[in-house]
Amino acid sequence: ILHAPDDLTAGAFSHVLAPWAGRIRNGEFNFEHQRIRVKGVPGTKDDGQGHIYNGMVRYETWRVEGYGFDEDKGVSITGTFALNIDAEQFPDVAQLYNPLTFRVTYWLKGNDVRVEAEVENHGEQASPVSVGFHPYIDLGSEERRTQTIVDIPARLHWKADQMIPSEAEPVSGV
Question: Which of 7, 28, 86, 95 has the most other CB atoms within 10 Å of its CB?
Fold first, then answer.
């Protein structure tokens, strides 16, 4: 789930997507009556159409905070990281995101993986944050892929226009 810093290009693994998941049109958004430009900030990724996607933290350094065992949840490892945005070069973005600490715990029990995420804002103002995950699991054979079930207990999902989130709608059958 976590991987060594020298092995960042070997695949997606289970990257944490934060402080946003998904795409931001043209790398800009409005927050509390202010236009925020995140395009070009280190850690952002351009989709080739001018939109940026999947946050800024995929290559941040993790600090293992702990590991453990719970009879119901299984074994766990918890890591934390903080964003380090150059405040002189990107003052608006640094003001929103530098005071954030991300804490992610991965729980493993049998064939189940559970992920818990927390974001702590140490600043004086609100920060626009969403957290997502980009799991990559090599299932091997076609037979194994067709027999694998992924259960995501979601109440809402985001409709998208050109892979850019547009509006939330209820998930049916939940």
Answer: 95
Q: How far is it, in rounded angstroms, from Cα 137 to Cα 141?
A: 12
Provide the pLDDT for residue 12.
44
Token digits of residue 158: 């985001």
How far apart CA 102 and CA 31 sit, in angstroms, is 20
Cβ contacts of residue 82 below 8 Å, gap of 6+?
Answer: 60, 98, 100, 101, 102
Which of 24-28, 111-115, 120-124 is most confident? 24-28
The tokens describing 39, both together, are 């395009």
Q: CB-based contacts of 31: which residues, under 8 Å, 6+ apart?
A: 96, 128
Maximal C-alpha separation, the chain = 53
pLDDT tens digits, one per residue of 126-167: 999 989 887 776 777 888 888 888 777 888 888 888 888 888
Strands 52-53 and 34-37: unpaired
Q: Where are the alpha helices (DSSP H) in the chain?
A: 91-97, 142-147
| Residue 3, token pair as written in the block | 């991987």
